[in-house]
Amino acid sequence: MIEVHDLQKEYSEEGTSTRALRGVTFTIDRGEFISVMGPSGSGKSTLLQILSFLDRPTGGSYTFQGKSIDNMTDQELAHVRNSDMGFVFQSFNLLSRLTVYDNVEVPLLYSDTPPSERRTLVEEAVRAVGLEEKLHTEAGKLSGGQKQRVAIARALVTDPNVIFADEPTGNLDSESGLQIMEILESLHDKGRTVIVVTHETQTAEFANRIIRMKDGVVESDRGITAHRVRSNLK
Amino acid sequence: MLLRDAFKTATRSLTQGKMRSVLTMLGIVIGIASVIILMSIGQSAQDLILGQVQSIGSNLIIITPGAPSNGRFSAPASAQGIVITSLQQRDVDALSREPSIDLAVPEVRGQAEAVYGNNNATVGYTGSTADFFTISNLAKVSSGQTFTKSDVDSANHVAVIGPDLAKTLFGPNINPINKTIRLKNISFRVIGVLGKAGTGAFGVDIGNLVVVPISVAQKQLLGITYFNVIITQADANYDVNFVKSRIKFALRQNHGITDPNKDDFNIQTQADILSILGTITSILTLFLAAIASISLVVGGIGIMNIMLVSVTERTREIGLRKAVGATDNDILQQFLIESVLLTFVGGVIGILLGAGIVGLAYVVITTFFSSVGWVFAFPISAVILGLAVSGVAGIAFGIYPARKAGKKNPIDALRYE
């Protein structure tokens, strides 16, 4: 599903250039649960941005579902982000004055979904994260854990193949963090590909594979068993 | 993104900051209201002026001394301080003989202090013949009578005065008829009071007018032998332009003019005057609207300013929308619709406010200055212009902030604190 080969990313600012990725190569199959770990500046966030089509690499190749990012226009990238990818951010990025319903509906506004079908899709997504009774509550009035669940519902609403989560538990207490990871795990159980960037070992170990980054390259790439971790979090 | 959703999103954004939206709109509201008010006042003034000219009758032809302006507007020779003596009694006689002309009425005009007892007023006076009252639609008097041909022939010191002047000089309790007033120390017996006040053709204040026999005005008040104007009334069976050519022919013959470019008289029909006045008032209205539109530009800059602030404040929202699939155009469209909505709604409110003020002004003017004869005019063109300008202002002043929003990099936008 995802193939990256010798992926490079170099930033140039005011005459100085920084190489955030220095040749990253791996493959992710459909239905995998991946954690990308690494210390600050290791390139894990840059990697996620490129994998999620928010940025383009400056070298190497990236193929998503058989299509190379090099051959796609910005509009096509936006379309793939909308239909095949879901996003969960550390700081939720909800529109705080809109209701849960309106927040979850946002990706559908940019999709081909007819307005008549939107309500059902939004309600299903909100039900999947257990917030149906908060459907018409302003997002700003929710707790951190609830906000992140809304963000997951928003990521789910277009029924994407892959969900990208950037430090999804970073702003949550451990109990809420656990709930969020369990939701992501259940999505994975239903066949979705989940890619989580985190620096927390407990969070990372929900995945069945951990890619460790260091200085812009893959330091290690190994599979693990998930259920050891849950006890750690609890 | 569907246009319907874009409108819904934009409306929601605007209603979330109601006070800010209202204050932002205010500039456009004031701008559009000013344009509407000034265009409406301009139109009212135009209708009023043209209405007065029309009221003098379409078959009137006015002859003034001096070279013709050839369609261009220029002040009459008399207004430029030039004394032209070309219009004489023999011209009136010649015109009176012309079959296509019913009436030829000479006039002289001046200003003087009218005095009765201790009361006085500065007035405009007209010296003319008995036909003056017929040709000027002033034959109806509220009391007394107008003077006759024999008063003119005998140079009788009689006067017909306007109703406002009658009030000023005599007050409510004295009947002016047969009282003596003085103009330039010459006594005139008041024999009639005109039936209507208001402003007549050429801005003459009928309410304060004094009309005396032309023989007295020429010899004793002004000391001249020529006329300031000759008003002719064309026979209804003849085309006005034909009559105009007959007048030209007669006057050229009288004045010995062979070169048509050297005419020493100017002939204007009602249509000529309407055309000139129409042009002047239209230019004036446009000029006023142009001044008012400055406030529109200021309002537009206010909108641009607030939209730029809004784009910066909502950077993370833009990042989020782009991350979940919005294209540059989707974001541009959303912000553009917001600014157009602001200006358009502002425009509609401005039009309503303008209409309200114009209506109020009409009520005030007709209540307190009823003699002015002000007409209510609310040109539909002003409404269309107001709506169009407000829409265009939304695009013109919103496009830059909207493009800025559309071009934002989603990663930078999502990181924005």
Describe this structure in words.
- The complex is a heterodimer of chains A (234) and B (417).
- Chain A has 234 residues and is of the alpha/beta class.
- Chain A has one domain: P-loop containing nucleotide triphosphate hydrolases (Rossmann fold), CATH 3.40.50.
- Helices cover 35% and strands 28% of the residues of chain A.
- Chain A has helices at residues 44-51, 74-84, 100-109, 115-128, 144-156, 174-189, 201-204, 227-233; strands spanning 2-13, 16-28, 33-37, 59-64, 67-68, 85-88, 162-166, 193-197, 209-214, 217-223.
- In chain A, a hairpin with a 2-residue loop joins strand 1 (2-13) and strand 2.
- The longest helix of chain A has 16 residues, at 174-189.
- The radius of gyration of chain A is 18 Å and the shape is globular.
- The mean pLDDT of chain A is 89.
- Chain B has 417 residues and is α+β, with helices and mostly antiparallel strands.
- Chain B has two domains: 3-53 and 278-415, no CATH class; 85-263, no CATH class.
- Helix content of chain B is 55%, strand content 16%.
- Chain B has 13 helices and ten strands.
- A six-stranded mixed barrel of chain B has the order 2-3-8-5-7-6.
- In chain B, strand 2 and strand 3 form a beta hairpin.
- Chain B is elongated, with a radius of gyration of 32 Å.
